[in-house]
Write a structure and sequence with these properties.
Blueprint lengths: L1 E6 L4 H15 L4 E4 L6 E5 L3 H8 L5 E11 L2 H12 L11 E8 L5 H9 L17 E8 L14 E10 L4 H4 L15 H10 L7 E4 L6 H8 L3 E6 L2 H5 L6 H7 L6 E6 L15 E2 L45 H8 L1
Parallel strand pairs: 5-6, 8-9, 8-11, 9-10
Antiparallel strand pairs: 1-3, 1-4, 2-3, 4-7, 6-7
Helix pairs in contact: 1-2, 1-6, 6-7
Bound molecules: S-adenosylmethionine (SAM).
The site of S-adenosylmethionine has 23 residues, from helix 7.
């Protein structure tokens, strides 16, 4: 069956990767029929409404998913498409309360326009009552206007869809994790929305172990823990982890009732990582020092290379064949992911 996904029109390059990751996570076969970076509307083939609901249930880049009842470049073609596609479905919705809304992307409609557009679907003759609060069925006419089209005198959108709402996403949690409301942040704390999208793309989930080697104030581990993962983090700067006056990395987990998702944190230089190599982590999500506000620091001597100093038994770095270097590049992360 065909569905219409209503994305947000920001973080465009992350939208499809997030949805594809969520389809993989839920084991949902999904075929993308149409998608463009310039539009928030994407059409998909999915097995059924339950799959559509599951697909969206933890998305951040999408707002809602609709069963697609018709589409077209003009209202007459939209109505033709609605009649051709959805007529067989009407009987099962008879007697149910319903509501129609209009979602105009890059456009606006007057109240009179909205009433007229909604009334133009009266031929569907649903017998149930109109209910503005908690209706059984929600229909939406989605208009895709070209950028600035109305300002340049256009009165017609470039594409139209009619959808029956099937599921909504988790976008409301972006506000909950907003850095403005977080008790412990720094100048380089990762934006909450991007951290949540990243955790989705990385498949953070219950039973999975995630690690951030540049943890700072913990935005990524918090996002991973939100989706049920057990999250660990380390940073070369212990002050970032410890914070001050009770405001610290651990407290950020507590603020969102995510204490069980906090694995632990420790101080370490990634270029001399104390972790053993091996495939025991389910995911590494991080925001490497990018050199503008937060440059890379490494442990070592300015003039001469000295090996790291360890307490206790030899770590894997000291084993033959392991090169400890002061040089560092993201290729180290890439190589570790292979
Ligand atoms: C861009 S910030 C990460 C911010 C973090 N994502 C947050 O939300 O607060 C980069 C972090 O990398 C740390 N860092 C720099 N060099 C490092 C190294 N060699 N090993 C581990 N951490 C390092 C810095 O101390 C800093 O906290």
């Amino acid at each position: 069956m065909e569905y219409l996904l209503r994305f947000i029109q920001t973080h465009e390059t992350f939208r499809l990767p997030e949805i594809q990751a969520l389809a993989d996570l839920e084991g949902i076969p999904m075929e993308v029929i149409s998608y463009s970076l310039d539009s928030p509307f994407c059409t998909l083939k999915l097995p059924d409404d339950d799959s559509a609901r599951s697909l969206l249930s933890r998305s951040i880049t999408a707002k809602a998913i609709y069963a697609l009842w018709g589409s077209g470049p003009t209202y007459p073609t939209l109505h033709e498409s609605v009649l051709a596609t959805s007529t067989p479905w009407w009987p099962q919705f008879q007697g149910q309360s319903f509501k129609f809304t209009i979602d105009s992307f890059q456009g606006s409609r007057t109240h009179a326009d909205i009433c007229e557009l909604i009334n133009s679907f009266a031929y569907m003759s649903f017998t149930g009552p109109v209910a503005l609060k908690n209706p059984d069925m929600r229909f939406c006419v989605l208009e895709d206007w070209a950028f600035d089209a109305q300002a340049h005198g256009s009165s017609t959108p470039q594409h139209l869809y009619l959808g029956r709402l099937v599921g909504t996403s988790q976008r409301e949690i972006v506000g909950k994790y907003d850095l403005k409301k977080r008790r412990y942040i720094s100048t380089t704390s990762m934006d909450a929305e991007l951290a949540l999208i990243t955790a989705n793309i990385a498949l953070a989930r219950p039973g999975a172990i995630f690690y951030d080697p540049f943890v700072g104030t913990g935005s990524f581990p918090v996002a991973c823990a939100h989706f049920g993962a057990l999250a660990f983090g380390s940073d070369i700067d212990g002050r970032a982890i410890r914070g001050k006056g009770g405001r610290n990395l651990r407290a950020n987990f507590a603020q969102y009732d995510l204490a069980p998702g906090f694995g632990d944190s420790f101080v370490a230089d990634l270029t001399n990582s104390p972790l053993r190599p091996g495939r025991y982590l389910d995911g590494i999500v991080c925001d490497p020092p990018y050199g503008v506000r937060e440059g890379l620091k490494v442990l070592g001597h300015r003039e001469k290379r000295v090996g790291p100093v360890y307490d206790g038994p030899d770590a894997h770095h000291l084993q033959p064949g392991r090169v400890v270097s002061r040089g560092w590049a993201t290729s180290i992360l890439d190589a570790d992911c292979e």
